[in-house]
Amino acid sequence: MPLRLAVLLVLLAVAAAEDPYRFFTWNVTYGTIYPLGVPQQGILINGQFPGPDIYSVTNDNIIVNVFNSLDEPFLIHWNGIQNRRNSYEDGVYGTTCPIPPGKNFTYILQMKDQIGSFFYFPSLGYHKAAGGFGGIKILSRPLIPVPFPPPADDFTVLIGDWYTANHTDLRAILDKGNKLPFPDGILINGRGPNATSFTIQQGKTYRFRICNVGLQNSLNFRIQGHKMKVVEVEGTHTLQISYSSLDVHVGQCMSVLVTADQQPQDYYIVVSSRFTTPVLTTTGFLRYANSNRPASGPLPGGPTTEIDWSLNQARSIRTNLTASGPRPNPQGSYHYGMINTTRTIRLSSSAGQVDNKQRYAINSVSFVPADTPLKVADYFQISGVFRVGSMSDAPTGGGIYLDTSVMGADYRAFIEIVFQNDEDIVQSYHLSGYSFFVVGMDGGQWSSASRNQYNLRDAVSRCTVQVYPKSWSAIYVALDNVGMWNLRSEFWARQYLGQQLYLRVYTTSTSLRDEYPIPKNALLCGRASGRRTRPL
Ligand SMILES: *[C@@H]1O[C@H](CO)[C@@H](O)[C@H](O)[C@H]1NC(C)=O
Ligand SMILES: *[C@@H]1O[C@H](CO)[C@@H](O)[C@H](O)[C@H]1NC(C)=O
Ligand SMILES: *[C@@H]1O[C@H](CO)[C@@H](O)[C@H](O)[C@H]1NC(C)=O
Ligand SMILES: *[C@@H]1O[C@H](CO)[C@@H](O)[C@H](O)[C@H]1NC(C)=O
Ligand SMILES: *[C@@H]1O[C@H](CO)[C@@H](O)[C@H](O)[C@H]1NC(C)=O
Ligand SMILES: *[C@@H]1O[C@H](CO)[C@@H](O)[C@H](O)[C@H]1NC(C)=O
């Protein structure tokens, strides 16, 4: 057995060596930033806010050595990167021990069979409110055709709501059991109103990868006088349809093409909060090179606040079945609509108080971390850290209670998950380790009859789905990635106060084809402290 393991490890190393490596060394520090004109303590990566982009090509090995120079434990999560067979690298509380202050940890990621637009952010301690996030671009391999000509440039556009309070003050409010106030503004690439511009040349076409890296609000993005052609959503090449404004919900990314086909001058870029009172708005500029004319005229207005407008736009964003994905075979050859699901999980979110403190729950369970990361406890077979089945497959209707919720699931099962949102906010759910088909969404209560309206042909496959107020969204997931995977609200105060769980995708197989062992450099903590990452 140890011999077989060793041989396999060598084989794996050889196989991986064929794909290029890209090395990054990141120093995470505090630094003073002034995005809304008020000085505050931000989290910088190599002195930058936002952090540097990760540029990569499908199957690249990305090695990121992260030095934690903060005074708090720290982790980076790779939102949308699937870390296939390797949930240890996911960088969330349940999979990876935190990097202690003054220490470092090297993430070993592979962009296996992925293309598209994603981002990273710090997952612990409400650090996300202080920065530490950045864009991730995964380009197609040179031989795989992309369904649009190479753009003249490829811009990362990180948009998000923002507080002028620092993360320790915000965290203290949540830890005391209170709700956060409304955010103070919206940032574009870490900067406030009128501070960000993108320079373009007349006649050329540009790619903008727009990600909502904020804490809670759905945002609308628009550019004065220009259409945006959506071409990609979290790894799916979409039907290329032009829009004059786009809703991007928290945690989501999409790519649009913009052609510089107007008079050469500056144009407003507007980002505004959706379905909120008041509406937060920020502006930036699309700047034609060699133009000295400032932007003028009224700011382009946002769409109606009718939920149906946003819902219809979401439904119109579909997969281009003839466009290629990360592999030579077209994505459309995967007929997800022909496969019978074997299980339906219905998840209902709720808000309430436990012991006079604000909490948020899924199926009445409000997640609390255990003393040891769940995946690490699983690897070392440390019992008593979590219970598989600590959350039911359907809402129970009972009051909110605290638990370390872990739901068991079978490797290779094909399942349906229905998110029910009976509240007045827009929800946004992310599943780590996977891309799933968004087969339907609508207002009201989901019932089995809702399946009649599913899109079983060309739904987009993505990793984050919104759920409108008093509405449901349904997804299909092929559980082809063994591991401990975080399913959470991207509404960050809700995630922090319990609206998350772990999906333990399990097999009895111990083959490396199904799951890698714990990384050799894994930090060990809690009840796993002092263990060895490799058996002798
Ligand atoms: C990180 O940056 C801080 C502040 O500039 C510096 O003191 C520290 O030596 C750096 N650490 C590494 C590992 O580069
Ligand atoms: C956040 O601001 C408070 C004052 O409002 C300060 O006491 C605290 O040290 C700050 N936190 C960080 C990480 O700078
Ligand atoms: C910390 O960084 C050093 C290089 O400076 C590296 O050799 C070591 O493996 C890193 N530690 C971890 C846990 O990745
Ligand atoms: C779909 O992709 C194909 C292949 O690249 C392309 O020719 C076609 O224009 C695309 N269709 C739409 C509607 O985007
Ligand atoms: C940004 O620019 C617009 C148009 O010039 C102006 O109306 C607005 O007041 C500016 N905002 C800020 C915060 O400077
Ligand atoms: C799916 O289920 C239907 C109805 O139970 C059945 O008729 C069909 O053969 C099943 N399809 C597959 C591929 O198993």
Automatic annotation (TrEMBL):
SUPFAM superfamilies, per the entry: Cupredoxins (SSF49503)
GO function term, MF aspect, one: oxidoreductase activity
First and last residue of the signal peptide: 1-17
Gene3D superfamilies attached to this UniProt entry: Cupredoxins - blue copper proteins
InterPro entries: Cu-oxidase-like_N (IPR011707), Cu-oxidase_2nd (IPR001117), Cu-oxidase_C (IPR011706), Cu-oxidase_fam (IPR045087), Cupredoxin (IPR008972), CuRO_1_AAO-like (IPR034273), CuRO_2_AO-like (IPR034271)
Domain named Plastocyanin-like: residues: 27-141, 154-290, 371-508
Keyword annotations from UniProtKB, A to Z: Glycoprotein, Signal
Family statement drawn from the similarity comment of this UniProt entry: Belongs to the multicopper oxidase family.
Name this polypeptide is given: L-ascorbate oxidase
Protein species of origin: Sesamum angolense
